[in-house]
Amino acid sequence: MMPRSSVPRAARGALRLQCINKPSNRRTFASQKSGGFNYETGEVNGIKFASRDIPGPTTQLAVVARAGTRFQLYPGFAEGLEKFAFKSTTRRSSLRITREAELLGAALFAYHSRENLVIGAKFLREDLPYFTELLAEVVSKTKFLRHELSEEVIPIIKLQRKGILANTADMAINSAHGVAFHRGLGTTLHPTSSVPITKYLQEDALRDFSRAAYAKPNFAVVANGASHDELSKWIGEFFGDSPSAPPKDLPPIEVKATKYYGGEERIAHDGGNDMVIGFPGSGSYTGGHYNPAIAVLSSLLGGQSYIKWSPGYSLLARATAAQTQAHVSTRNISYSDAGLLTISMGGNARHIREASEAIVEILKAISGGDIAKDDIKKAVAYAKFRTLSAGENTSTGLEMTGAGLVQSGKPSQLGGIAEAIDAVTEEAVKKVRIPDPYDSVSAHD
Question: Distance between CA atoms of 54 and 203, rounded to whole angstroms?
Answer without folding.
Answer: 39
